[in-house]
Amino acid sequence: MTDFEKINNTQQTNESTDNKSDNIKILKNLCGKNAEYFAKDSSENGQRLYISFLAIIDTLNVLYPQVLEVESRVSEFDLDESTPGNGYRSFISIFNMSVNYAIDLNQKILWRKNSILFRKTVLTKELETCSQLMSSLCTCFKHLQTMMLWSKEGNLFIEDKPLEEIRSVCENVNQYCFYGRSLGFQFCDSLKNVLQFIALSMAIFSEAYYSKGSLFSKATSSFMTTTKYITDPEQRAKRIVNISQNADVDFCKAFWFLSESELMNQLPSVVSPTVAVCKVINISPEPLHIVVEGKEIEVPVPTSYLGPKPIQVRLISYNNRKGMLGTKSYSNLEAPSRGLLIHCHGGGFVAQSSKSHEGYLRDWAKNLNIPIFSIDYSLAPEAPFPRATEEVFYAYCWALKNHEFLGSTGERIVMAGDSAGANLLFSVILKCIHTGIPIPHGMFAAYVPTLVKFVPSPARLLCMMDPLLPFGFLMRCLKAYACPSEVKRISNGAIVNFETDLDSFEEVSESDLAELQAHKSPVSEASDTLTYGSLTSNVDDVNDRDATSAEIEKSQKYMADIVHKYVLGRDYLGSMFSSKYYNSTSSAGEADAETEDTKVPQADTESCTSSVDSSFQTKLFGFVSNIKGHFSKMLGEHGGSDMILETDKPNTLWDDLCFPVPNNPYLSPYCASDEDLKKFPPTKILTVQMDPCLDDCVTFAKKLRWVGTEVHLDILEGLPHGFLNFSLISRDAHEGSKLCMQRMKELLNIHPESIKSNK
């Protein structure tokens, strides 16, 4: 670091400290004035307000020195001077936001305390939540100070104390305050309402998922609890914390499966760009050989846990291209693309699919203008490590060998994944290095966990307040994936793919491709069908842009009405659970003109309106019954209905989660040797400031840079882990997705007009 940089950083630190000091003085002054006023109020709420104001002042006197101590060393843990970011910085930002939150609340009370419209009861609860939040942060910073003392040479992971510290935090921190009235205060405004809705949905869904008795008794009891969670944020917070502590991995899968619902599957065709190709392909588990420099390398067929099974992938392309599967009869085909994107979705290794990530993938397909090959790997706990890695590796090798059938010349093949999907792709790169298979030309990873092990780091403490990735969810997902000996096996060992009955796919074997490659002249549609195998659905292949304008207008108008009324409007919560969206069917002729594997319910605007007027509870339990029906087929009866979660007393996780995790580089890329990391392709990593996996990203980027591998790290503010799934409904998340596209363009060496991004 140059002298100028040192001076500049010192000035910035001093300015930041001065701003904090000013805000602390303002907050203490406001608390003092309000405390003086309410000290004379003998009512219960008046005295509760008075005590809360004093508690905030007392907490600040302890908390602020802790923050300054952590801040004095925080730069030691950054990747470099131009990329400030780590878990310590994240907590400092949370402290700053909590101070601003407290100032705004104090000003509101100060200005309205003499008004006849002063809502004393509501503001009392809000101030108590604010006071508890400050107290919880004080506990967190105490542990951060300890972790900073334990850290070695700027390492964010405390590897010699694997569980005790994070256990202590979980037991001592009051988590309720982060999931009640202040839920989502640390995120951008465009996502706060979304996150609050998700938290509310989780609480309501858990009541139905774990309820007992008849449908009538369920509806009667749940009506009261649903109303309670909507009107009482404190009860909702208790429920969410208890869910995160007690719910099993089956509940996590069921809740995250909501993103696969029929209505959510319709959104990409309305909001995202129209694509020419969006089809599912099943790759037969046959022997596969890759020739590298004259040497033939055999790619093993995935067999772990489930035996040989077809691997499902999704091909998305903005244009029909020469050589692409299913385009023989089309005219005016685009030339094969130079690039190809190999994509793996996130979902904690246990949930989601390429379908639930289709929204932003369509946008990527248009802006990158290359085919996207998205892999639907088998999910834990039925398919734990290393099954998913085996499948993704096999699918990558298949794409490497058969890229021309995907509409690409294969000149630039880049991998891209988020969260668990990025972890799997890093593992595949390691397998390529070890087996001699050509590695991709670049790797893009979004908020990726690189150390799948219970090792404390400051960012991992963010799970204590994360509405999308609570600590219990994270731990149980990792356990389901990383510890096969702990897995509950299902009787038939099968994995059920939650594709709609209109998903068209083609099953492709090596013999099919060899026969196709032998054709030098155009063939008929009949021979095309024979070559690729029969479709299991009743839908013919549909080209989005060949559909009639009337079909497009009809489907888009209908879905636009749904989005306007139920997604963007106040009735969204009710319509979300309408059984009509899950049980309706449509004929092949009425298939959505924008994609091959979506369908539009046969309903007009009036029927949609009437569905909203029906009972919310009937819709909710009809929807949950449908969900349970799907999961009973896949998992068998999990007995969740016999487990009633306590509302007021969460149980501990530790008896359930104390188990060893192997130091396997295919499981944790952070454990890879320096020799292997030197062979990695250019890597772009993007994460967010409030991500529990932030330290994983920063530390892994440090390791790559240390061995000389080209690496770039972006850290965005205001967005949560998994923000790509919200890019259709949040402007800030969409801007983050645009930056992802820019980084992938750099890896692909694509140089059209650059995408602007607000970092």
TrEMBL record:
InterPro entries, alphabetized: AB_hydrolase_3, AB_hydrolase_fold, HSL_N
Transmembrane segments: none
Residues covered by region (Disordered): 1-20
GO terms for cellular component: cytosol
Pfam families: Abhydrolase_3, HSL_N
One function term, GO molecular function aspect: triacylglycerol lipase activity
Protein's organism: Rhynchophorus ferrugineus (Red palm weevil)
Polar residues composition bias: residue spans: 7-16
Domain Alpha/beta hydrolase fold-3: 341-482, 639-724
Gene Ontology annotations of biological process type: cholesterol metabolic process; triglyceride catabolic process
Name used for this protein in its record: Hormone-sensitive lipase
Record-annotated Hormone-sensitive lipase N-terminal domain positions: 24-324
